[in-house]
Amino acid sequence: MALISSDRSRFPNDPWRLVETAHEPGNAGTLETLFCLGNGHLGIRGGHWAAADTELPGSFINGFHEIWDIKHAENAFGFARTGQRILYIPDVNNFTVIIDGETLSLAESSVQDYQRSVDFGTGVYECRVTWLCRSGAVVTTVERRAVGFESRGCMAITLELYADQYISADVTSSVINRQDQPVEDQSEHDPRRAGRHAGRVLLPMQLEGGDGALRLSWQAAESRQRIGLAVDHVTSPVLQPFDTPVGPDESSARYVLAVGPDRPFRLDKSVSYAVARAVDPSLADASAQDPVELAEAALLPVADIFAQSQAHYADYWATTDIVVGAQPELQQAIRWSLFQLAQATACADVAGIPAKGVSGSGYEGHYFWDQEIYLLPYLTYTNPDGARQVLEFRHAMLPEAKIRAKELSVDGALFPWRTINGLEASAYYAAGTAQFHIAAAIAFATNRYLWASGDEEFKAGIGAELLIETARMWVSLGFFGKDGQFHIHGVTGPDEYTAVVNDNLYTNVMARFNLRAAAALDHAGIDDAERQLWAAAADRMQLPFDDRLQVYSQDNDFMTLEAWDWNTPRSKYPLLLHFHPLVIYRHQVLKQADTVLAMFLQWADFSAEEKRRAFDFYDPITTGDSTLSACVQGIMAAEVGYGKAALEHFTDALFIDLDDTHGNTIDGVHIASTGGVWSSLVCGFAGMRDQGALPFFDPRLPTEWERLSFHLKLQGRLLFVDLNQEGISLSVSEGSPLDVSVRGEVHTVGTEPVHVALEPVEVPEPTVFPSGLPTASIPIVRARA
User: Fold this and answer.
1) C-alpha separations of 372 from 356, 441, 601, 663, 679 in Å
2) What is the mean pLDDT of residues 717-743?
3) Hey, what long-range contacts does 620-623 have (CB within 8 A, 24 or more apart)?
4) What are the pLDDT digits (tens) for 117-173?
5) How, if at all, do strands 754-757 and 727-734 pair?
């Protein structure tokens, strides 16, 4: 059921903030996600220090993980060997406040007023609570948080106390090792959730405290990564802590004082985390860095960290904001999505972007194809340097990817389906290793970055190597059949409800692109024979097509499968939690429409009629069990002229987390879906397409909207796009003029806006397939919590 959108008295519309005006039991874990803060490197969940119903509070650092040996019940050659899981880092967001002997608690104390918010414009979390204490005193607590940006391992937390009469206050600020706290492992019940390690994971190395300063470090038991933590407490009025006990699982600083109308209390908690590389215990490593020294060297006053956050977001929104003339709740949700994208990517540097960013432990903190297909479009056109760094991260995995390719008897590089450290971590190969299409995703993101940035240095080096090694994988994985066509067998496409098939259309279409992009390179590492082989494989790529239905088939056998029973109750969705994979694999039912995705990504390879018929056929049999599905279906619905369906799919994607429609927002933000929201606006409603001769726009603004405007960093320019019901306006805010195609008509765009009038898009009649039911009459099943 809906959360944010259904309770606007508790969560009012605010275009620049997410606001909660009352604390109610339930949904604590989901709200910890929605009110999280992060910068792509460091993340802190939005738990409340006085809440008794916290579910998964904690903090994370991108890439800080533990490993273990995967034990397969029935082993086979080439199975994934090393499990990887993001770890909860020691958490600093913990306070205990005792007023006149009463421990303040949202569950048991009397609350007169409550409001918490996260401000998209500044990146600041604030929670203000007014308490009526049992002693009769009225006390207000104000907590604020922010994370650093230039200092990406830093965090600032302030706690203020105000009282209407003199009170005795006892305030403890704690650091808690949540990783080694006893928590139920939910992963057996829901494979989307992270598992928990048995036994102690974080082994203490240094535990020191005194005078309000804590200097702590731990080492992960198996990965041997080390984390250091420096915490300074500064109070106003200036106080020495009553005591500062330290330990492997909890360390704290305690302050006891009188607070009154003319004597408020403020506690500043400045925090710095640092991760140091693993050290081989059998070697004397003189170059080993002390993580506490690294953390201490980066420590900053809280005012500096708040200033960094405010400056970062002032710059971010100046070129990344997307404005819609639509219902206020849509504008708020769009900005929340863009805010989450910044929090997941801004300071990732040369690292991957986990499927949950740094907002939670879902999907074990792994990097998937999500980052290349759903996140890199956003990064490429808003933060090109960030896009390049993610591709450099993939390139750094090439040595492991080449070894993995040999294990799977293919040439070139085979990147892991899910990973943190570069090794394949997917224990279920049918929905893991068999998704070879991750190679094409990396090649596609590489080509997009090259097209959008014109980065010739990257093209000659890293970019070329990524395209070449993935092309070599494809041409060795596939084969020329007796029919003269090039086939790729035994793969799984994005639709994980249809696994290990022959000639998956999405895989073949994207492999064809990959081969052609590599063949087009002017690079000394490619000889003529190899180039010709790639070109021949691409030209003869088998694309399954059903002549009777006149629709591209998802794979060679998909049209022969039994139809799914669409009377299945909604309580049985997502299907992966209620049916054995073999049951799902036997039926025509999709987790996400990968044929539709292929036609979006390779937009120039298919006719308008082919796209429309594919959408008509696949949309009704797509469950939406994947959070990656709605955004793409909405984009294609817009392109083929189904405005109502486009807006419905977009709205579904927009509120996946804000309404917890998939029931697992507790585990972190679905970052790829927020990237899909960006693409839905830019590529769906504004109709932008890339990697052609020119930037191309074919707008499809919803009839209910007055406006859509945004910026794109494109080929060295800053392009401003402003769309309304009459037409589209284009101008270059920074850089030289740019040629742009609008519905096939070329316009040279400079600093003066170019206005192009647009005719309304004709709404086609849905295709009537042999079942006799047109798309419009088939109810789309949505997975709801």
Assistant:
1) 14, 6, 12, 25, 13
2) 97
3) 620/773, 620/775, 620/778, 620/780, 621/564, 621/588, 621/589, 621/590, 622/590, 622/591, 622/592, 622/593, 622/780, 623/497, 623/573, 623/574, 623/575, 623/589, 623/590, 623/591, 623/781, 623/782, 623/783
4) 999 999 999 999 999 999 999 999 999 999 999 999 999 999 999 999 999 999 999
5) antiparallel
| Residue 340, both tokens | 């989450």
The CATH code of the domain at 316-725+764-777 is 1.50.10.10
Distance CA 731, CA 712 (A): 11
What residue type is assigned to position 259 of the chain? Answer: V
Query: Are the CB atoms for 341 and 183 separated by under 8 Å?
Result: no
Please give the average per-residue pLDDT across 247-269, as a whole number: 97
pLDDT at residue 281, as a whole number? 60
Helical pair 629-640 and 671-679, crossing angle rounded to 10 deg? 10
Tokens describing residue 125:
């979390």
* No. of helices (H) and no. of strands (E), the chain: 19, 33
Q: What is the Cα–Cα distance from 545 to 522, expressed in whole angstroms?
A: 34
For residue 775, name the pLDDT band (cuts at 50, 70, 90): very low
- Phi, psi angle pair for 519, to nearest 5°: -65, -25
Q: Note the Cα 677 to chain centre separation in Å.
A: 11
d(CA 419, CA 362): 13
- Contacts of 490 by beta carbon, 8 Å cutoff, 6+ apart: 434, 500, 501, 502
Beta partners for 138? 132
Structure tokens at 440: 């094409």
What CA–CA distance (Å, rounded) separates 312 from 278?
Answer: 32
Taking domain 35-313, whether its CATH number is 3.40.50.360 is answered by no
* pLDDT (0 to 100) of residue 351: 87
Tokens of 667: 């585990």
Which residues are the active-site residues?
496
DSSP element (H, E) containing 530: helix 528-539
SS3 501: strand
Residue 475, token pair as written in the block: 């041409």
CA–CA separation, 468 and 413 (whole Å): 9
Residue 251 has pLDDT above 60, yes or no: yes
Asked whether the beta carbons of 712 and 733 are under 8 A apart, the reply is no
Domain boundaries, the chain: 35-313, 316-725+764-777
Bridge-based pairing state of the strands 738-742 and 696-697: parallel
Phi, psi of 234 (to 5 degrees): -125, 130
pTM reported for the whole predicted model: 0.95
Q: Is the dihedral of CA 541, 546, 549, 554 positive or negative?
A: negative
112 band by pLDDT with thresholds 50, 70 and 90 = very high
Instruction: Specify the 3-state DSSP secondary structure of 88.
Output: coil
Residue tagged 């600041």 (tokens): 124
How far is the C-alpha of 323 from the C-alpha of 408, rounded, in Å? 47
How confident is the model over 467-488, as pLDDT tens digits?
A: 999 999 999 999 999 999 999 9
